[in-house]
Amino acid sequence: MLRKTQTVNENQRLLVFKNQELIKILNAGKHTLWDIKNELNFTTFDINELFVSLPNVERLYRNSEVLKTQIEHWKLDNDQVGILYVNDQLKGIVAPSEHLYLWKDTGEIRLDKVSIKNQIAIENRVFNLIMRAGANSASRLIRSENTVATKPIADLSVPKDHVGLLYIDGKLAEQLPPGNYGFWQLSNKVELKNFDCRTQILEVSGQEILSKDRVSLRINLSASIQIKDAQIAASSVDKLDEYIYKTLQLALREAVGTKSLDDILIDKLYINETVKELVTTQLSSIGIELKSVGVKDIILPGEMKAILNQVVEAQKAAEANVIKRREETSATRSLHNTAKVMENNPTLMRLKELEALEKVADRIDSLTVYGGLDGLMNGVVKLT
């Protein structure tokens, strides 16, 4: 055919190539072109897609003044991130070192370049805008095909009553107070470790320990701790909770293993005081304050518990027997003293006789008296 007719919609652009060389770009409308030698071919683009996906676009743009009238080009350095806006709407995040080729007729295009060479923290206003637009995702990251897809921003949060340690490429960068933060992570590895600064309770439970006299005890220990310096704690040990647990466990074993069962039961505060003395300085050196420590339970084996119960029962029985003998002795001494007093006092003796007669009379229904009142008094009751 000598003539070729092409229809271009309003949202399209038609690239015309002659012998694989770009010669013109056609806008919306119906176009007729002469092609006597059948040398023309065409490529249609939807400019609503924004990005020019033309093969060899970089070379074509550099060599074609025609293409430059239709396409906008941006280049980012390897320490820059781009925030792309179209008609003041955020469209995505551009990775470092990227080339952007965009259709100009898509709308008003703006690319804000952000240097991440020395500062990867994101301004709160920009961070909130990106998060509201849902642009912090691998699918919204504008990148070359050979670039690993990842979220452009590390969305970090430090809870209330915590402190956060920020690490950039494995090195401690800064300590963060509670709040929400955003950091560029396209060229850096960003990590956050949170530490709870409130007083925490740590349980060391079910410890089977032999006392000095080889009695097996099961002991439950409770300790309250608080992080005073998160940076020292993080740099000193890897697994903080595990380290504190092991430290308390070893101190508990040392305290119990050097005392006999009787000593432990007599001095109930010995274990608490000894464990605290052993671990306070050690924990303080890694930024941890030991506020209190205490034994919750001391559990004896079944046979040992039965033996101790028998010992306690025997001790109590002996104590009761001593008290009983003491009271009997006291009663006998009192009777002896009373007898001595009555021996030299006839009137008191007679009163005791009458008291005895009254007790006897309470126990009988009737009484026959011979010899008058003197017979009753002298014959029925007579104390000697």
UniProtKB/TrEMBL annotation:
SMART domains linked: PHB (SM00244)
Top-level lineage group: Bacteria
GO BP term (any one): proteolysis
Primary location group: membrane
Pfam families reported in the protein's UniProt record: Band_7
Entry membrane topology: Single-pass membrane protein
One GO cellular component, as annotated: plasma membrane
InterPro entries: Band-7_stomatin-like (IPR043202), Band_7 (IPR001107), Band_7/SPFH_dom_sf (IPR036013)
Keywords, comma-separated and alphabetical: Hydrolase, Protease
TM helices/strands, residue ranges: none
GO MF: peptidase activity
Location in or out of the cell: Membrane
Presence of the UniProt keyword Acyltransferase in the record: no
Domain Band: 157-312
UniProt similarity note: Belongs to the band 7/mec-2 family.
The protein's name: Stomatin/prohibitin-family membrane protease subunit
Species per Swiss-Prot/TrEMBL record: Pseudoalteromonas phenolica
